[in-house]
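--- STAGE predict ---
source: upstream dedup step, 1 unique chain passed
mode: sequence only
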Amino acid sequence: MSLKVELKPNERIIIGNCVVTNTDQRARLLIDGDNVPILREKDIMTPENADTPAKLVYLAVQLMYISPDPQAQHSTYFHLVSEIMTAAPSAWPIIEGINNSILSGDLYRALKEARKLVAHEKKLLEQIDATVGKHAA
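--- STAGE serialize ---
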């Protein structure tokens, strides 16, 4: 099956173990291949941007997705998930979805689920900030 990707000027994309950077004009790519990891720049988490527990989980899943040996990240992933479950048990349904996707070998779906975990964490942090703001006033 082919994947059509349109890149903005200077946008980057990971295809397999290569980073492709577009030139200064829009470009369309047609990518053929089976089980080749593909990540658009907007979906790439860098270690510098992984500044919360959920973003660290996303980074670990991303590394599984693009790695030829995904199991190398399993211990890091499960350690991070354990910490999140201690701090935010409400994240369990999302983590269960990530775990099921990892166990079934669908790492792209696991990455999509990990994005939900980042959004859930953001929502929790916003609720905490709102509560702290009320008590400070």
